[in-house]
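Usage example:
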Amino acid sequence: MSTHDVAQQPARVDPSSWMQAVQGAWQAGGLRATGPRLRVLQTISRYRVPFSAEDLYAALKARRDDRTGRATVYRTLEQLHSAGWLARIHQQGSEAGYVPSFPGHLHHLVCTSCGVVIAFEGCALDELVARLAAQTSFAIESHLLQLYGRCAMCRDC
Amino acid sequence: MSTHDVAQQPARVDPSSWMQAVQGAWQAGGLRATGPRLRVLQTISRYRVPFSAEDLYAALKARRDDRTGRATVYRTLEQLHSAGWLARIHQQGSEAGYVPSFPGHLHHLVCTSCGVVIAFEGCALDELVARLAAQTSFAIESHLLQLYGRCAMCRDC
DNA sequence: ATACCTGCAAACAATTTGCACAAAC
DNA sequence: GTTTGTGCAAATTGTTTGCAGGTAT
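Running the assembly step on the lines above writes:
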């Protein structure tokens, strides 16, 4: 059982285990746990829906006395995303947003009404991949899969 | 058999049938076939790989004497995308780009080396959708699926 | 001590908007 | 002739960069 053993069952990412996991990875990778970075991390962990870089920057600025600069926000997002701690969610109409995630092969189920995101694993695409590989001669290596619908709370409104 | 009956087999979109189909849809929808729009359409139809709005604008500007403005490019892209004539391709590292497509339920297979895009239908996700619906109580309505790999030409380099 | 990080401000890039003029139907 | 579309330039908005100084280890 790994430290961040997520979404055996579909589930929202737990904010505090996510924060802990990221901090562990930072330490392991020699990245410093600075004040601004930790504040960014905490602010992210409170999001339940996809957010943009500017959303995050604005949220930080909302706390008075916060001096975190845009550069730190963008640089931290970049680091987290490339290390797999943030997933990009592509909503139909609107722009893409980030959501806390864990490194590895995960997919997402997104509520088109409230925006809540559920991660899951297992996508049963092997047959499709085999068929397409045969038909196209592509060497298929990876895929992006996101599902959209209305969550239990929103479907009854 | 519909006018734009595509990707029964996985295939690149055919530039000229795509242009014809779009022009038909414009006419049917009361959109005027103006010079600038047709030039945008033709330029798009020549792309074999995902392109951005600025790529397209630059390509138009490359023809001397072209007066097409940015606004026209952006507005036309917006129209084509929202009507389903352009699909957004999300490459792993880089930014998203557009690719000619047809309205309807299509997915894409993208070469990570040369960028060529193949459209296909049929994704066999019913079982997965049923399982997730049961586990999460979401009413799942749609999904985004893109596959990545190396095409026949690129895999041998 | 010494990397690594930070905020700032300016540069850069991408997209949107208002509006007078032009073109399609 | 009227409605729809257009180019332009300016306004917005989003993102990156250079650098002098600060801070975690």
